[in-house]
Amino acid sequence: MLSAISRAEFLFLVKKYYDVLIVALLFSIGVAFFVSKLAWRKVTSSRGHIPGRLGLPFIGETISFLSAMNSTRGCYDFVRRRRIWYGKWFKTRIFGKIHVFVPSTEGAKMIFSNDFVKFNKGYVKSLADCIGDKSVFCVPHEDHQRIRRLLSDPFSMNSLSSYIEKFDKMLSQKLKKLEQGGKSFAVLDFSMRMTFDAMCCMLMSVTDEPLLRQLDKDCIAVSNGLISVPVMIPGTRYYKGIKARRRLLETFKDMIAKRRSGKEWPEPEDFLQSMLRRDSYPPNEKLQDSEIMDNLMTLLISGQISSSAAMMWSVKFLDENQQVQDKLREEQLSIARSKPQGASVTLEDVNNMSYCWKVVKETLRMSNVVLWYPRVALGDCIEIKKGWHVNIDATCIHNDPDLYPDPFKFNPSRFDEMQKPYSFVPFGSGPRTCMGINMGKTTMMVFLHRLTTDVNTKLIILIFISITGSQFHHLLPLLFCRWTVDDPDTGLEKNTHLPRLRSGCPITLTALNC
Ligand code: HEM
């Protein structure tokens, strides 16, 4: 079009109609402002204000929140109740801060896509004190990008591939022992230990059992202190978290010193080594020791707690939905049959587990191991004021019957259909999306593979099937490893920000059901 008129003609038109152009420009700006205002109004509430109760200054509804935290219904009960009283959008005041719960895909989109621009991560003092202010969770925007980029090594496809094989070997050995023992065990304890050991091996090549258990104990104490009252009183979660952090830092410092002096040199290179290799790199291409240590802690804790809770919920949901379990077992057995006896699961196998991935997605949708994602408004944004906390309520989005018909039914096949944007956000979205998304996903899939296929009697059954003929193939899923949940209690753990069964979901593995 521009080429159709000459420069001189263009200048002539601008000169002649400049007043019309200015009016058109101002009009467009006005329209854009009006449209964005309308969009945000639609996002917040049709009534133009956010309902809710702020209560007394500072205290607000803190006591109700703490009492929900301290109940076996879990802290989301606080949100659930207010949603019944005020509707989907509501505001409240907790520990002196105003919080708005954002329950819609439009709201999630608005916030996720404006991360660092209009919103920043919201976190409490105890979190920064326990995990460290150099953690990727807490650092400001400028450092966040660099740290995130430099932390990406363990999440490359190569690292993931070797992680899967190591994790699988570890897992199948431990499961076999448990199945032989025939005793009840809590899935949560088991999955916490498995994920922690696998992360320690990958990040720092630690395999020594006493050291692993000490690190594990300290990381759990740090994780328990993340959301606590930040006062150093002996016996409190905060106190224990800070003490555990100091012990962890000592151990990490010791490890770093040994590696720098050449006393330890892991082969193949692990995450810590890949960080130390950068010692002579320019500042923006390496992490300082304090950044390495805070982020080691961050990866160990975030890698352990969310994956292990999700693994526990998958066992619970599959136990309550035997048809889904059978369908999953069928898929997993066909993968197991296509491999030599005793071979490890590979990344390629995981990529072929399409139904298993749907089971994992449905588990994450229903369990909501991260209930909501906290952000702070960096400026006024219509009804939201600067400094207010906005919580993207993933739980509400995942339970929305308009997005997920019959939302409390465990139905992995609902993921046969494409999801609407921002309607499935168990790993967050945008620049702060979970860094371990593939690791978390594959950890769960390898776990489900072993749980549904692995038994010592596998070979005997295969021989039996091949002798008796292929017409019995459909019985195969019935013959493999099954489990029974030994405690039907649905109460949740108290005083935690993660929904986890207080029973830890005890199960007994049974090799044969015939
Ligand atoms: C099923 C397992 C997992 C779930 C459901 C999960 C979920 C999440 C969620 C919801 C966030 C926060 C997003 C936000 O605030 O917007 C997050 C952040 C993060 N996750 Fe995960 N996660 C899982 C596994 C892992 C694993 C295995 C690792 C690492 C080994 C990991 C490392 C991280 C890190 C480092 C962040 C902070 C990212 C940032 O702020 O830039 N996660 N995860």
TrEMBL record:
Alphabetical keyword list: Heme, Iron, Membrane, Metal-binding, Monooxygenase, Oxidoreductase, Transmembrane, Transmembrane helix
Subcellular localization, as worded in the UniProt entry: Membrane
Enzyme class: oxidoreductase
InterPro entries from the UniProt entry: Cyt_P450, Cyt_P450_CS, Cyt_P450_E_grp-I, Cyt_P450_sf
Gene Ontology molecular function, alphabetical: abieta-7,13-dien-18-ol hydroxylase activity; heme binding; iron ion binding
Signal sequence annotation: none
Protein topology in the membrane: Single-pass membrane protein
Entry EC no(s): 1.14.14.145
Obligatory cofactor(s): heme
One BP term from GO: brassinosteroid homeostasis
PANTHER family assigned: CYTOCHROME P450, CYTOCHROME P450 26
Protein name: Putative abieta-7,13-dien-18-ol hydroxylase
Organism field: Rosa chinensis (China rose)
